[in-house]
Amino acid sequence: MLPRRLVEETIDTLNLLFPPYHSSTTKFLQKEKKRFNNLGLCGRDPLHNLDEYDYWRDKLLELVKVFDEPPKRWWQLWRYRRNKAEFAQLWIAILVVMITICTIPTSILSTYFTYRQYDIARIQACAVEPLPPGLASFC
């Protein structure tokens, strides 16, 4: 009914997409109540080169293209681990934002206390008798 080549290629495609003996794949398929991985090789060598696929080549190439695309939104970077540089950039950016958020109030407080210290120093300098000649304009 179905061409033998189509069945073999479909089995290879399923084994490629859902690798047998891969723990994450097995857990996922058990959760979804599906049992089609580990179909075997039917006594032949599996296809490893996408050029050897006749029926599913276009769909597999489309999957590879989608898989290789970088994330389109910032929140997709959270779980994006294929490009280590982009993943590191995300965490460096998050760290810089956190440091900036902590630094802004600290800078405001530092400015406030610097002004207060200046005011206290001015009051102390003006309290000296006799008043030094250069301080008369500040008191």
Indicate the percent of residues in helices: 55-70%
Rg, rounded, reads 34 Å
Structural class: mainly alpha
Give the total of beta strands.
0
Strand content: under 5%
What is the total number of structural domains?
Answer: 2
Write down the secondary-structure element order. HHHH
Distinct helical segment count:
4
Taken from the alpha-carbon principal axes, the silhouette is rod-shaped
**N→C terminal distance:** 104 Å
Q: Which blocks of ≥5 consecutive residues have pLDDT under 50?
A: none
Q: Could you give a short account of the major beta sheet?
A: none
Mean pLDDT: 84
List the helices and strands and how they pair.
Layout: H1 4-17, H2 23-31, H3 57-68, H4 84-126
Give an account of the 3D structure.
The chain is an all-alpha fold and 139 residues long. The protein folds into two domains: 1-69, no CATH class; 73-139, no CATH class. Helix content is 56%, strand content 0%. The protein has four helices and no strands. The longest helix has 43 residues, at 84-126. The protein is rod-shaped, with a radius of gyration of 34 Å.
Keywords:
139 residues, 4 helices, 2 domains, 56% helix, mainly alpha, 0% strand, rod-shaped
